[in-house]
Amino acid sequence: MPKGISIPLEVSASGGALTVKSDENDKKIIRLALSDDDNENAFQQNIGLGERMIFELDTPSMRSWIVQRTKKIFVMFAAQKRFKLLDDTIMWDDQNSVGGKSMVKFRYLNLESDEEKEFDHQFGAGA
Fold first, then answer.
1. Cα separation of 82 and 73, whole Å?
2. Is the preceding peptide bond at 8 cis, omega within 30 degrees of 0?
């Protein structure tokens, strides 16, 4: 069962770093991969969605770009034998979009546990 440090970093009741397990850890990994990819590592640039997904207007072309980048990220996950994006499951949830943020949902297969999971994420200012 995978286990990792909670992000954002939190303190546990015993005073150590709070850890997350299984589904929570998987969602943390996916959420980090879909982040703005701001980092100082010269060898790991341009692996996320970038700041464009935060500051650009919610247009059909922007949504298409996010879908294509998400598919590319999941190709990397599949090569690592972690997760596989399920075909034709990426959907935009306009009813739950609040304050200029866009909500995207999709289903993925956890290749370790062979379980289908659902993931949702909000894009927009402050996401």
1. 11
2. yes
DSSP structural state of residue 7: S
For 103, the 3-state DSSP assignment is strand
> E strand or H helix at 119, and its extent?
strand 115-123
Render each residue's pLDDT in the chain as its tens digit; 127 residues. Answer: 555 665 555 676 777 776 666 788 888 888 888 876 666 666 655 666 666 666 666 778 888 888 898 999 999 999 999 999 999 999 988 776 666 677 889 999 999 889 999 998 886 654 4
Domain encompassing residue 57: 3-123
Neighbours of 18 (CB within 10 A): 14
CATH number at residue 59: 3.10.450.40
